Amino acid sequence: MAAQTSPRNPVPSSGLALDRTTLGDPACASEDDRRRVLELLLRTDEHLMRVLRGARRLALPDWRLASGAIYQTVWNALTGRAPGHGIQDYDLLYFDGTDTGYEAEDREIARGATLFADAPVPVEIRNQARVHLWFQARFGRAYPKLRCTDEALLNYASKTHAVAVRMENDDRLSIVAPFGLADVFAMRLVPNPVLDNAETYAKKAARMSAAWPEIEVVPWPADAADQEVDPDPPAATDDPRPQAQTAFDPGYAPSAAGRDWMSLAISPRTELPK
User: What's the angle, vertex CA 89, arms to CA 87 and CA 92, rounded to 5?
Assistant: First the structure.
């Protein structure tokens, strides 16, 4: 029988208290500590581990299980809620630049529908190599052309959501968190204004607060909210994932500050500044 944990109880095999005050404070716990605790929490979630094993069998290129299913599992453990509380879906990302047509993506979605038929919530499979092709038509703003799945995390509306995991062939859990895990364990929603995602951030913050009233929501920065938005975005077509290519600011680059974000993100000792 799996060991039970609750807020302020020790995490099995970690030697750390399972509470946001300890794990959410860089002065009290290291990023190594948080990664170890995150892995322990994920491994004790039966449904999540089943999805990770299924994703490994699906063998999508450069795949990750990302965002809600990861950080919300942590929040449920910190607040003593049942596993799966508030988790609406599993975001299964992959990157295949060899075929960015929506038909190819649909074939992978169909394969996953069979494999994950018994999952407690839907498993949403999306090719990150083609997000820039449909994003503007759907949301009215441009999106950068990505180079890998991990790079997608840099564009999430909240830095807290930017965490993803892959189960490797040796059963190791590979964790990527470009902004670190302190905000996840502090239950603090922090905006990421790299894109004009203020509306998305507000909607997500409202839903998160309803499911986990304990969270702290950091407001979207006022200067970012004032940036100009196209008042007449392209209309959506019947195809929910249109293929029209969109331009993006050529000056955008995750490493614009001279840092290799992805190398930093996968280092177990990374503590990126907020």
Answer: 125
d(CA 156, CA 151) in angstroms, rounded, equals 10
Residue 189's beta-bridge partner residues? 217
Contacts of 200 (CB under 8 A, 6+ apart): 157
Residue 204 burial (10 A CB sphere; 0-12, 13-18, 19+): buried
Residues 6+ apart with CB under 8 A from 110: none
* pTM of the complete model beyond 0.90: no
Write down the domain spans for the chain. 20-217
Tokens of 121: 């919530």
Tell me the pLDDT of the chain (274 aa) as tens digits.
Answer: 333 444 556 665 556 677 888 899 999 999 999 999 999 999 999 999 999 999 999 999 999 999 999 999 999 999 999 999 999 999 999 999 999 998 999 999 999 999 999 999 999 999 999 999 999 998 888 999 999 999 999 999 999 999 999 999 999 999 999 999 999 999 999 999 999 999 999 999 999 999 999 999 999 998 764 443 333 333 333 333 333 222 223 232 333 333 333 333 433 323 332 2
Q: How far apart are CA 99 and CA 105, in angstroms?
A: 8
Return the percent helix, strand and coil in the chain, to nearest 5: 40, 10, 50
* Burial class of residue 81 in the structure, from the number of CB atoms within 10 Å of its CB (0-12 exposed, 13-18 middle, 19+ buried): middle
Q: In what order do the strands lie in the sheet with 123-127?
A: 123-127, 90-94, 64-66, 164-167, 173-176
Question: Sign of the CA dihedral 55, 57, 58, 63?
Answer: positive
